[in-house]
């Protein structure tokens, strides 16, 4: 589990193809003291497991599913990435609950300065934007951000100079792809409300948990 508050940047130092997956070697800009083999590290928002450690360098395996779902299919030597080690239960939760399981990719459509902030518009598929609401949370390349506006195929976020300086979002250009993880709470709520075909009530083919049930029992 992560918070979306980036710990620091890193650089891709090695790429080793492995079938449809790959091994990545990365070098962090900060000390990895306290990190152990098997620990989870979010790389551009994707939760990966450290399988080798040497000073500030670590290696991770990237599965074919992760390659297909993320921007890792386009990654290159020397590329800068956002890094966040897993949350300790004693830590402050400054961002929002981020699982590190990327839902899909989007693309930067526009960026403009507005006072002391940068307003960025990302394009994304409806399968992602359906879980977004204004003032809700989204993780972009692992960075916890607040959604200013959203519609069927795009959404806006605002980043401050501090975030622009310390994460890759600050130097992304229009057209660049990004990893997107939507708010997990919305996905769970949808699952509980709609259920699945196997979970439906056999008597009438409908889930016993629906909007009418929630309204009747005072939940909405």
UniProtKB/TrEMBL annotation:
GO terms for molecular function: riboflavin synthase activity. The keyword Repeat applies. Residues 1-96, 97-193 form the Lumazine-binding domain. It holds the Pfam family Lum_binding. Pathway: Cofactor biosynthesis; riboflavin biosynthesis; riboflavin from 2-hydroxy-3-oxobutyl phosphate and 5-amino-6-(D-ribitylamino)uracil: step 2/2. Its EC number is 2.5.1.9. Keywords: Repeat, Riboflavin biosynthesis, Transferase. It catalyses: 2 6,7-dimethyl-8-(1-D-ribityl)lumazine + H(+) = 5-amino-6-(D-ribitylamino)uracil + riboflavin. Lumazine-binding repeats lie at residues 1-96, 97-193. One of its GO terms (biological process) is riboflavin biosynthetic process. Catalyzes the dismutation of two molecules of 6,7-dimethyl-8-ribityllumazine, resulting in the formation of riboflavin and 5-amino-6-(D-ribitylamino)uracil. Homotrimer. This is Riboflavin synthase.
